Amino acid sequence: AYTFTVTATNSVGAGPASAQSNSVTPVSQPTVPGAPLNVVASAGNAQATVNWSPPSSNGGATITSYKVTSSGGQSTTTNGTTTSAVVTGLTNGTAYTFTVTATNSVGTGPASAQSNSVTPVNQATVPGAPLNVVASAGNAQATVTWSPPTSNGGATITSYKVTSSGGQSTTTNGTTTSAVVTGLTNGTAYTFTVTATNSVGTGPASAQSNSVTPSGSGTISNLIVGDTTNASNWSIQSNLQVGNLCYGDRTYTMTYVAPSLLGSVWVRPAANSKTSTANPLVTFTISQSMTVSVAVDARIGRRSWMDSSWVDSGLQIVDSESTPTHFEVFQKTFQAGQVSLGPNVQSGSSSYLQYLVIAR
């Protein structure tokens, strides 16, 4: 701090000093701030977030604002207390660096060193819902297939999860589009949904699959044929397939079997039993709850003993006669135990073929 006195001088000499002035302390004049430090950028979707530290000197005056400028010319300004900013309007796929300047009441200081280089990208989202989910039943299990979603969300699908309407589920890798869901209850209907997961998370569930009902590898036993004359030509068969003989006393084979019936256990009858009036014509035992299918000559259709509980399934079997016979399939579910079926013969229909019996 300083005070000051003043003296006057003439030809005689200097006079007395004045009283002391007030006390003053000289100070240096403010300048612009220094360059901000530690500028770091991180990329976003068509934008970048830039962080920095204040300059080592504010130039002797409060910093009032910062300006962040990209190497592409995009910029944004913040107040003097904020050390982070988002620069928008960038082009995804283009690399950028950033500089920051500080401003005080004197003016704007020099730019910082350039930040690290970053490249904005479109941010990934969760995948879409898988498509075309189809289920097929097995023994206490079901096989489910699907198609990938139309969008993977911009990131590789890493897994799929298949979930049943009963809560059972299984997970596969991101390249597999089928799975077997186990632990199901035979005789219970299930539908299935599938979700896809990527690095962001799990997307929405697919639409529900078709409904399927698992069934066990049930058996037929204790075959009793009421038509004793032709009983020796009746037999229990396994694994129903195209090419099987239709009858124990004919050479006709099956040229078409509805896919859902393939692999079933079944009863091969005698063709000559078609005119028998024995009632029941055939009795057998099934080992568990099963759907019994009776494939009848479509020319006469439903037999008189089939009440409304026998449902026309719309399925068909076709044989190899020169004029092929089409069999329409009526179905009914029975619990484990004995099943009895009525005669094939109907009034005025003795020339038509004996029905076939399938259980699944």
Q: Would you give an account of this structure?
A:
The chain is mainly β and 360 residues long. 0% of the residues lie in helices and 36% in strands. It is built from no helices and 22 strands. The protein has strands at residues 37-43, 47-53, 65-70, 75-79, 84-88, 98-103, 131-137, 141-147, 159-164, 169-173, 178-182, 192-197, 220-225, 235-237, 254-257, 265-268, 282-286, 290-297, 311-319, 326-334, 337-341, 356-359. It has a 7-stranded antiparallel beta sheet with strand order 14-16-22-18-20-19-15, with no helix packed on it. The chain starts with 36 loop residues before the first strand and ends with a strand. The model has no long low-confidence stretch (mean pLDDT 92).
Q: Give, in order, the helices and strands.
A: EEEEEEEEEEEEEEEEEEEEEE
* Order of strands, widest sheet: 14-16-22-18-20-19-15
Strand content: 35-45%
Mean pLDDT: 92
Helix content: under 10%
Tell the overall outline: rod-shaped
Number of strands: 22
Most strands sheet: 7 strands, antiparallel
Number of helices: 0
Structural class: mainly beta
Contiguous low-pLDDT stretches (5 residues minimum) are none
Spatial separation of the terminal alpha carbons = 109 Å
Question: Radius of gyration, Cα only, in angstroms?
Answer: 45 Å
Keywords:
360 residues, mainly beta, 7-stranded antiparallel β-sheet, 3-stranded antiparallel β-sheet
Short recap of the structure:
The chain has 360 residues and is mostly beta strands. It is 0% helix and 36% strand. It is built from no helices and 22 strands.
